[in-house]
Recover the amino acids of this structure.
């Protein structure tokens, strides 16, 4: 539903469930073993009246200033009314995704990572610089 809503083609992946099960099974710890750190996602959203292209330019500049410069990309919807900016952090296992939708007048931020403290700190910095006190 999500992909169709934004015009992105989603093909069914028969191996997806196998991959998910293997991933989940790998994360389970047996008695006496330590569990790997689980990823954490921090999110927030605001109402935004900003123009899409100008908003994305500012987002990219702020994200890069915070160290999110690896594998950065902007993906536009087919109708050109929304886009998502994504990047990985240079020094930490943390990623950032920002979605802007002019049709719904929203902007959302998600910061995820394995190291909870770094992800939370970077989320707060990104949220403050991108959204201020909204």
């Amino acid at each position: 539903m999500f992909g169709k809503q934004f015009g992105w083609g989603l093909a069914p992946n028969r191996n997806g469930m196998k991959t998910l099960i293997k991933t989940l099974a790998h994360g389970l710890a047996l008695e006496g073993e330590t569990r790997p750190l689980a990823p954490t996602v921090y999110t927030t959203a605001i109402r935004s009246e900003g123009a899409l292209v100008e908003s994305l330019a500012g987002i990219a500049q702020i994200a890069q200033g915070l160290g999110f410069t690896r594998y950065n990309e902007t993906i536009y919807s087919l109708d050109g009314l929304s886009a998502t900016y994504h990047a990985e952090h240079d020094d930490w296992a943390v990623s950032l995704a920002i979605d802007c939708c002019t049709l719904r007048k929203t902007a959302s931020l998600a910061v995820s990572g394995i190291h909870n403290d770094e992800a939370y700190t970077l989320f707060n910095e990104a949220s403050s610089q991108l959204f201020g006190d909204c």
Observations:
- The chain has four helices and five strands.
- Strands lie at 40-47, 70-76, 82-88, 94-101, 106-113.
- The CA atoms of residues 9 and 123 lie 30 Å apart.
- Residues 1-25 have pLDDT under 50 and may be disordered.
